[in-house]
């Protein structure tokens, strides 16, 4: 069993690399892939860079080169659900590309050509495991639902409300759906777990800088739980 773990930024993955045993690293197309053992689990971890293209390149490379049995995307997100505060956890049941827009040609908002759908379902069993691992940490609110991804940092009520109203999302970030898209194209199970760093509103630029490190640590702690066996 080999689990692929992708984050966008160093803060979202370095804590895992730090505890990885028997680590071997290889750089492909500017991204470093670190393979080793976390807890009792074979893992391959990478920092993809921010945004959907970086994430897709990383996920596709990981699939072709290392053939993981599943991919988990972790990191931070802007919260879209009033119940989720800073550091709390959103686990995706499905993901959506909120900036995919071919509505002028008659398709629904977020429609993905090739997959012929708007929402990409996460692997149910993996999502259950992520949810239960998150609950077992204690002290964090954990919610499941739609996580929305796009090539935009959400920092206004207008952007925020559009994503909530159009897709019913509980969190916004910039990679999860593109990793889901890549995995769905190859039939590989995937899951997305995000810790809230900001409220996807006018305070987000400031809050993101202040709270990303602690929030990212929460998502790393959950992966450490999951991989401990
Ligand atoms: N990741 C963390 N906060 C975010 C936000 N407000 N918008 C997009 N991605 C994020």
TrEMBL record:
<keyword id="KW-0028">Amino-acid biosynthesis</keyword>
<dbReference type="GO" id="GO:0008782">
    <property type="term" value="F:adenosylhomocysteine nucleosidase activity"/>
</dbReference>
<dbReference type="GO" id="GO:0008930">
    <property type="term" value="F:methylthioadenosine nucleosidase activity"/>
</dbReference>
<comment type="pathway">
    <text>Amino-acid biosynthesis; L-methionine biosynthesis via salvage pathway; S-methyl-5-thio-alpha-D-ribose 1-phosphate from S-methyl-5'-thioadenosine (hydrolase route): step 1/2.</text>
</comment>
<dbReference type="Pfam" id="PF01048">
    <property type="entry name" value="PNP_UDP_1"/>
</dbReference>
<dbReference type="InterPro" id="IPR035994">
    <property type="entry name" value="Nucleoside_phosphorylase_sf"/>
</dbReference>
<dbReference type="GO" id="GO:0005829">
    <property type="term" value="C:cytosol"/>
</dbReference>
<dbReference type="GO" id="GO:0019509">
    <property type="term" value="P:L-methionine salvage from methylthioadenosine"/>
</dbReference>
<keyword id="KW-0326">Glycosidase</keyword>
<dbReference type="InterPro" id="IPR010049">
    <property type="entry name" value="MTA_SAH_Nsdase"/>
</dbReference>
<dbReference type="GO" id="GO:0019284">
    <property type="term" value="P:L-methionine salvage from S-adenosylmethionine"/>
</dbReference>
<keyword id="KW-0486">Methionine biosynthesis</keyword>
<dbReference type="InterPro" id="IPR000845">
    <property type="entry name" value="Nucleoside_phosphorylase_d"/>
</dbReference>
<feature type="domain" description="Nucleoside phosphorylase">
    <location>
        <begin position="3"/>
        <end position="226"/>
    </location>
</feature>
<keyword id="KW-0378">Hydrolase</keyword>
<protein>
    <recommendedName>
        <fullName>adenosylhomocysteine nucleosidase</fullName>
        <ecNumber>3.2.2.9</ecNumber>
    </recommendedName>
</protein>
<dbReference type="GO" id="GO:0009164">
    <property type="term" value="P:nucleoside catabolic process"/>
</dbReference>
């Amino acid at each position: 069993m080999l689990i692929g773990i992708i984050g966008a930024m160093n803060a979202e993955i370095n804590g895992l690399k730090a505890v990885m045993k028997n680590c071997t690293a290889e750089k492909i197309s500017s991204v470093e892939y670190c393979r080793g053992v976390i807890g009792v689990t074979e893992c391959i971890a990478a920092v993809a860079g921010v945004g959907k293209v970086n994430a897709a390149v990383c996920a596709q490379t990981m699939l072709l080169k290392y053939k993981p049995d599943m991919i988990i995307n972790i990191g931070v997100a802007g919260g879209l659900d009033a119940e989720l505060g800073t550091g709390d956890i959103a686990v995706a049941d499905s993901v959506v590309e909120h900036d995919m827009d071919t509505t002028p040609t008659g398709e629904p908002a977020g429609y993905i050509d090739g997959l012929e759908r708007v929402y990409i379902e996460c692997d149910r069993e993996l999502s259950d495991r992520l949810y239960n691992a998150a609950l077992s940490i204690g002290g964090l609110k954990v919610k499941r639902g739609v996580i929305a991804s796009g090539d935009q940092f959400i920092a206004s009520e207008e952007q925020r409300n559009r994503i909530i109203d159009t897709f019913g999302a509980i969190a916004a970030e910039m990679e999860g759906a593109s990793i889901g898209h890549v995995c769905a194209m190859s039939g590989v199970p995937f899951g997305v777990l995000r810790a809230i760093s900001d409220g996807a509103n006018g305070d987000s630029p400031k809050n993101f800088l202040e709270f990303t490190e602690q929030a990212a640590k929460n998502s790393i702690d959950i992966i450490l739980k999951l991989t401990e066996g």
